[in-house]
Amino acid sequence: MYGQVLGSSTVVGTGAILLPNTGGNVPLTVAAITTIVVGSAILLTSLVRIIAKKAFKA
Amino acid sequence: MKKLLIEALIGIILIVGGIFLWNQRLNFEVTDSQPPIPAATQRVAKAPAKATLEGQPNNISIPSLNMSLPIINGYYNTVTKQWNLTLNEVQYATITPPPNNASGNTFLYGHYRPEVFAYLHLIKIGAQAIVTTTNGHTFTYQLAQINVVSPTDDSLFAYQGPPILTVQTCTGLFFQNRQLFVFNLVGAV
User: Fold this and answer.
1) B157-188 pLDDT, tens digit each
2) Where are the domains of chain B?
3) CA atoms within 13 A of residue B178's CA, in its CB half-sphere
4) Looking at beta carbons, which residues of chain A come within 8 Å of B81?
5) Which CATH class is domain B2-188?
6) B28–A39 C-beta distance less than 8 A
7) Which of A40, B2, B132, B147 has its CA 20 to 30 A from that of B74?
8) How far is CA B133 from CA A13, B65, B72, B77, in A?
9) Whose CA is closest to A2, among B146, B26, B35, B155?
């Protein structure tokens, strides 16, 4: 992407240096998404079953 | 009915817990107090030969984002392949040339956190970034391009050309990509 890259060093241009991880904790992100999805699924099914139960009684 | 209400409560607790984890995922920093770095790799890019102005960066401000942040040194550990990273500051990669008006690519990086670069993606092409140095110089840069690359794309370290500034933060749902904001030097005093 840099138009004037010359690659003069033996260290660079080979993936030898990884760019900094300035993001977040990946396992924590996966855990957060999983927890939210599972929680939402449980909540949704519970609400559907509660509504269905009330409708059935009515 | 009571069982269903308990299930719904469990779902709510999981959602709240997930939101808490989501907010905590950015609260990490990397500290390498004893980086075993061979000296030969510490300055991959040669220091500018004809620099008339250069200095150790200590602050970056981006007026269009109302952003002003302190800069500290950033070191690369060749063994762990990690850079030191703090929660509230910008790091200057010491293997790249310092801000100067001669040549080379000055590389700054910072966390994708509200306190640092979480809003950097809002910057527009043409916006200015002002870097000040400990010896009193001020370098003004203008945003020229924004690129998203993989963590293994280290071509920026081999750059040799007119003085530019590259600022990095992470992007992607799992922070799997690196977003590079490339600025051209437009003024130095």
Assistant:
1) 989 899 999 999 998 888 889 999 999 999 98
2) 2-188
3) 22
4) 17-18
5) mainly beta
6) no
7) B147
8) 29, 20, 11, 25
9) B155
